[in-house]
Amino acid sequence: MSLLVDLATPIAMGILLGGLYSIIALGLSLVFGVVKEINIAHGDFVILGSYFGYVAMTVIGIDPILSLIIGIPLFFGIGFAIQKYLLNRAFRISMDATLIIAFGISIILQNTYQLVWTALSRGLTTSYALESFSVGPIHVPLVYLLDLIVAIVVMFFLREFLRRTYLGMAIRAAAQDWKAAQLMGISTNRVYAVTFGIGTALAAIAGVFLGLTFPFTPVSGMPFLIIALGVVVLGGLGSIAGTLVAGMAFGLAQTLGGYFFGVTAQMLVAYMMVLVVLTVIPRGIFR
Amino acid sequence: MRSKALLRGSNIDVFHGSFQALWDVSLSVNSGEIVAIIGANGSGKSTLLDTISGLIHPAKGSMEFEGKNISALEPFQIVDLGISLLPEGGRIFPDLTVLENLKIGSYNRKARPESTENLQRVYQLFPVLETKKPRLAKTLSGGEKQMLALGRSLMSNPKLVLLDEMSLGLAPLLVNDLYKTLQEIRTRGITILFVEQNVRRSLAEADRAYIMETGRIVLSGKVDDLREEEKVKKAYFGT
Q1: Which label site among A212, A274, B146, B192 has the fewest CB atoms less than 10 Å from its CB?
Q2: Closest approach of chain A CAs to the CA of B156, in angstroms?
Q3: End-to-end C-alpha distance for chain B, whole angstroms
Q4: Is the pTM of this model over 0.80?
Q5: Contacts of A174 in chain B (CB under 8 A)
């Protein structure tokens, strides 16, 4: 009984943390599923979102969550332009070319962060970022709960957009058969640019909530990219519900691993879990 | 005569890498006609349809639609002009519903306002699609999938429909139905250019035909004349 009480907090933390992981993974999964690009700069775009919130808070003095009203369209535009002017052209050379370009963008972004914001660790320390709440034996920071709520809300809107609009249908059609999509009158280049734009806008959202949850440095993108890749393969490519469930599974494996084997082993446990699940169901949970 | 042609291809050469797939191909399709392209596997029939729809661009020669040169246009621009290709194997979107597959057919700006009317017309042609509209397309039978593919290509408000081996792998009864539908589609003023391996079927359904061999057009004319052609008799009917 006392074990259950002790476990209540790590379980709750793991599930809530899954919200943050799934929102980080969502943009990666969408671009991977539709454009078939592995955007290895995704983690760095997420951190760009964190710095965007940081600047909004410290320089302009507005709440980082509120700053997303500008951040989402701005990041969409950046992503749209990168796909349209860089990656769509690289496509014609080979798939590898897009990977190398994304890697280059990643290096450029990391070094820019070092130059502008130095290597110091930053955080979005708003008043509510330090709050926590308790339900029975569970004690968790408030932002963790916020992470999960935002993840669910964002996923709901993304799902509705993909289901109900012509553009959303075109994105799903292009993901399934790009050649047939072109024959339907769809400009796949435009669809790819829009998709990459959405992926980058999702990175902005993820970045702000990451910054509210954890401290970040110019090189924080990589570890979160690796977590996101784990979540994407675990959840099944392009599946929104799968991304949420996989994010929670990853969060749980991490917090429970930390509880039983110590903090140093928590990531090892989480990746072991990914490995075991993929051995049993190689196509991921939702495919 | 020249002004009547809806589609006119002149002296077209097409390459797949270094392999030449079409050699000096010329063809014309008039408004309201049903025209067949006949030939064995690998004779270049599908390549010709892909070239018309902009999936491949010719290295030489020109493709004109309603007098406008379309050889450099992208597929989505060609759909806008009113050409719709039903690709080989149908290539419906397996994880979209039947209704979504049809709706995506009317993606282009000109067709979208008429989407509801066109949907009703497609349901008239293929009532089974209406009863199965919420199902995922991958759950349909082979014949239903092909009906969906044909219905989907009609959703774009085409003036010219290109059909690539529509009847491939289907039961003969289903094929009969599909070709009956073709004649119905024609009465709506839609011009049809189709590719078929079955020579008897092609000559029975079309007004005119082109016969292709190894990337070249070797014979063309009215189907009644072609049936009498010694070469056709020998090659395809074994007499």
Answers
A1: A274
A2: 8
A3: 35
A4: yes
A5: none
